[in-house]
Design goal:
The complex is a heterodimer of chains A (about 210) and B (about 210). With about 210 residues, chain A is mainly α. Chain A is built from 7 helices and 6 strands, in the order βββαββααααβαα. Chain A is elongated, with a radius of gyration of 22 Å. A 3-stranded antiparallel beta sheet of chain B has the order 8-7-9. Chain B has a two-stranded antiparallel ribbon with strand order 3-4. A two-stranded antiparallel sheet of chain B has the order 5-6. Helix content of chain B is about 55%, strand content about 15%. The chains are: A mainly alpha (about 210), B alpha+beta (about 210).
């Protein structure tokens, strides 16, 4: 297969904001999009380094996010601490199987799958694999789309904290796990945004 | 700081996900062009009045977002004691609960970004509609583009529903006006985003300047 005609190979830069193509100026100088003024890059700058940095930070925080309580409930019968998993278990045992599955999927599976998938993508680019570029691009697309739904549990805690106050029978307070969990979601979103899927395809032309 | 030179206006388009170059062709109405190599969406054929429709939808969403933020989302009744919470009230109780980072996160994703994005979009579409000169439309479009992933009204909506199910076990739930408003807002925001033709907006802005 001959090298495919990509913008970068023909010395063209696509604006990341307005998508206008322009000819790259002489090497070494900063180029701005002639239409919207955004800084132009052939690829997202330091894409792999940033992806790894956000990803590793997210992986570290994933541990406290799942082991520390995201919610503490004080009632007449004492204090009860809820982690994400015990919240899912509560939904399951109280008969809301659909919701339990939904929360489990959004809060446990999605962040985990997202981190594994991003690590695989970043590693595959680093190793210059040429295999399955289409599948890997599709994987990236799914990650980008599905990541935001992990925020679900943060909003659940928000509503519960706001509604269940001292005036009612119990009071709910957010726990340290919520902070860690929020950080995981934000960090994985940054990691996905830093990754440049075009890098997957760049290895394609090199080996011909 | 040098300027790149524009390639012949909108004849070529690079795939945003694999960088492959394509020559633009006419599309059938409502049609879309996809990358031949990776399948990413390249561009859509929007109706000529797409941005007028987007403006109408955005204005409607603007009214609904105000309602959604003023009225309580949900009320709770336990043994005659009534509590209810607005979205901002919920953010405040997180803030008072010493989890300020989470409070800021919720504020940004459910109040600030949707509001700012909507206001910015209405401004840009009005500038285009009235053919005013520039008027900050370019930096606003940049801003919208960068905050877009952080507007999470639809996720918030689902979160509210999950918490309602949890609460239904301990108390009587009274859905508030804002709950329905958020559902409508979610639909309007999706419709606005679907109608908005960014390519046309950029081209028009270039002509106006």
């Amino acid at each position: 297969m001959s090298a495919a005609p990509t913008a970068a190979r023909l010395g063209l830069l696509a604006c990341a904001v307005c998508r206008l193509l322009s000819r790259a100026p002489a090497a070494g100088s900063d180029a701005h999009c002639p239409r919207c003024g955004a800084l132009l890059h052939a690829r997202k700058p330091a894409s792999l380094a940033r992806t790894w940095a956000f990803l590793i930070a997210a992986m570290i925080l994933y541990v406290p996010a799942n082991s520390l309580p995201i919610m503490n409930t004080n009632s007449l019968f004492g204090t009860q601490s809820d982690t994400i998993i015990s919240g899912v278990a509560f939904l399951w045992t109280s008969g809301s199987f659909m919701l339990a599955a939904l929360v489990f999927f959004a809060s446990v599976m999605v962040p985990l799958a997202k981190m594994i998938a991003l690590a695989v993508l970043a590693a595959s680019v680093q190793l210059r694999t040429t295999r399955h570029p289409r599948t890997r691009t599709r994987l990236y697309r799914i990650i980008e789309f599905v990541g935001r739904w992990s925020m679900l549990d943060i909003y659940v805690v928000t509503i519960l904290v706001a509604l269940v106050q001292v005036s009612t029978l119990a009071s709910v307070h957010a726990g340290p796990g919520a902070v860690a969990f929020g950080a995981v979601v934000v960090l994985t979103m940054f990691a996905a945004a830093s990754f440049d899927p075009r890098l997957i395809w760049d290895a394609q032309g090199e080996q011909t | 700081m040098e300027c790149g030179y524009p390639v012949k206006p909108s004849s070529l388009v690079a795939c945003p996900e694999c960088d492959l170059l394509h020559r633009q062709t006419e599309l059938a109405p409502e049609g879309e062009a996809r990358c031949v190599r990776c399948g990413a969406l390249l561009y859509r054929c929007c109706a000529t009045n797409a941005n007028e429709r987007a403006l109408a939808l955005a204005l409607a969403a603007c009214i609904v977002i105000v309602v959604a933020n003023i009225f309580p989302i949900v009320g709770l009744e336990v043994q005659g004691v009534h509590t209810s919470a607005t979205l901002f009230g919920a953010v405040q109780s997180l803030w008072d609960d010493e989890v300020r980072s989470v409070a800021v996160l919720v504020f940004v994703t459910t109040i600030f970004v949707p509001l700012a994005e909507l206001a910015g979009l209405i401004w840009v579409l009005l500038v285009l509609h009235l053919r005013l000169r520039g008027w900050g439309a370019v930096p606003i479009l940049h801003f919208i583009e960068s905050v877009k992933p952080w507007g999470m009204v639809e996720v918030f909506m689902l979160g509210v529903l999950v918490s309602l199910v949890k609460l239904a076990h301990i108390a009587t739930i009274e859905p508030g006006v804002a709950l329905f408003s958020f559902a409508v807002l979610m639909a309007l925001l999706a419709a606005t985003a679907a109608a908005f033709d960014a390519d046309a907006a950029w081209e028009q802005l270039e002509d106006i300047r």
